[in-house]
Amino acid sequence: ETGVTQTPRHLVMGMTNKKSLKCEQHLGHNAMYWYKQSAKKPLELMFVYNFKEQTENNSVPSRFSPECPNSSHLFLHLHTLQPEDSALYLCASSQVGGTDVLTFGAGSRLTVL
Amino acid sequence: KQEVTQIPAALSVPEGENLVLNCSFTDSAIYNLQWFRQDPGKGLTSLLLIQSSQREQTSGRLNASLDKSSGRSTLYIAASQPGDSATYLCAVRELSGQNFVFGPGTRLSVLP
């Protein structure tokens, strides 16, 4: 595996379900990000982790809960979501203090019914 | 608050044309600026990164320029091909924090 891998690629869930999105980076980067991409809106930063410590939380509702157990893995735990949370969730990584090129995964397409 | 805009929102050109995409940002206190392309339903692919101290970067048929003082960047695509059809996004890395602020993108169609 190379680059940034996201699973699942597609997820359909009800408003009362609990699910998780997973991201893994194989680049040796020290920072990982969650972005949300909704139709007709620019990418919105949700969370940033640098060396496993959360450094940014962009006023995200508590129904989204991130977890970064190590510098290679990032999770986004989802519970009691709303239909307006349906979007493409993108994970990215970068080497802060290095090249700083932001490398993205293919995304997880979430639909909340 | 940093805001990034891109003009035009959409562009359709015949194959072979040279074209320019524009990106503007409101706060010149940036660390770097990156250009990405996104194919439908997929993630973003980094094309070029320009550090705040640089004026331009080139990769193949792509050339990106940065004028930090005026808050502008352009992406020049030479001899466009149908495979260039995608949405192109620019993003600025703010000096404070680790946020990359994205523009809404320019949707490019190159017609054979």
Structural account:
Helices cover 0% and strands 57% of the residues of chain A. With 113 residues, chain A is an all-beta fold. Chain A starts with a strand and ends with a strand. Chain B has strands at residues 4-7, 10-14, 19-25, 30-38, 44-51, 56-59, 62-67, 72-77, 86-94, 100-102, 106-111. In chain B, strands 2, 4, 5, 9, 10 and 11 form a six-stranded mixed β-sheet that branches. A five-stranded antiparallel β-sheet of chain B has the order 1-3-8-7-6, with no helix packed on it. Chain B starts with a strand and ends with a strand. Chain A binds chain B through residues 4, 6, 31, 33, 41-43, 45, 48, 50, 55-56, 58, 88, 90, 92, 96, 99-107, 109, and chain B through 4, 31-32, 34, 36, 41-46, 49, 89, 91, 93, 97-105.
List keywords for this structure.
heterodimer; A: 113 residues; mainly beta; 7-stranded mixed β-sheet; 11 strands; 0% helix; globular; B: mainly beta; 6-stranded mixed β-sheet; 5-stranded antiparallel β-sheet
List the helices and strands and how they pair.
The complex is a heterodimer of chains A (about 110) and B (about 110).
Chain A: E1 4-7, E2 10-13, E3 18-25, E4 31-37, E5 44-50, E6 53-57, E7 64-70, E8 73-79, E9 87-94, E10 103-104, E11 108-112
Parallel strand pairs in A: 2-11
Antiparallel strand pairs in A: 1-3, 3-8, 4-5, 4-9, 5-6, 7-8, 9-10, 9-11
Chain B: E1 4-7, E2 10-14, E3 19-25, E4 30-38, E5 44-51, E6 56-59, E7 62-67, E8 72-77, E9 86-94, E10 100-102, E11 106-111
Parallel strand pairs in B: 2-11
Antiparallel strand pairs in B: 1-3, 3-8, 4-5, 4-9, 6-7, 7-8, 9-10, 9-11
- Which band does the percent of strand residues of chain A land in? over 45%
Query: Using only CA atoms, what is the Rg of chain A?
Result: 13 Å
The helix-strand sequence of chain B is EEEEEEEEEEE
Major sheet attributes of chain B: 6 strands, mixed
Distance from N terminus to C terminus of chain B (CA atoms, Å) equals: 41 Å
Distance between the termini of chain A: 32 Å
List the helices and strands of chain A in order. Answer: EEEEEEEEEEE
Instruction: Report the uncertain regions of chain A.
Output: none
Question: How confident is the prediction overall: mean pLDDT of chain B?
Answer: 94
Largest contact between chains: A-B, 27 and 24 residues
Low-confidence stretches of chain B: none
Would you report the number of β strands of chain A?
11
* Number of separate helices of chain B: 0
